[in-house]
Amino acid sequence: xxxxxxxPNEHIVRTRTIDASSAAIFAVLADPTRHxxxxxxxxxxxxxxAQPITATGxxxxxxxxxxxxxxxxxxxxxxTTFEPEHAIAWDPGQAGDNGHVEPGGWRWRYDLEETExxxxxxxxxxxxxxxxxxxxxFGGFPVVSPEYLDRSLQALEQAVTGK
Length: 163
Description:
Elements: H1 2-6, E1 11-18, H2 22-29, E2 44-47, E3 59-66, E4 71-83, E5 87-95, E6 101-103, E7 107-115, E8 118-126, H3 132-137, H4 146-161
Antiparallel strand pairs: 1-8, 2-3, 3-4, 4-5, 5-6, 5-7, 7-8
């Protein structure tokens, strides 16, 4: 119940202003081969398919690693929002034997808004659609902290600006 009290809307949003155009930031986010550069830990290992993200409904797959859970694994992400230079989001999941991707119930979303001082990037981690079974399998949600999102935005800034 502490989870519900701390995050009543079952999502975390963090923002950062990056000294770059929304086009430059979006280009990194729409390139699965650059996602490793935007992640503050060593979970994301690399893109399975180097094709850029171009539309909602697209699936892009990543090689992942997590020491606490069987080491290496694959995640299949379904793009749920694709608005060039403004917003991009995906639902991680796992492809079954038939190739159908079953989302896990959480979403990563980036919203970009150009300002006088750069581009404000809002990163949302939303786990509101996770089932109780998934929550128990992961040991509860959220599986990352607000500080993790802050570090992710910092990594994105470094990937885009080199700073």
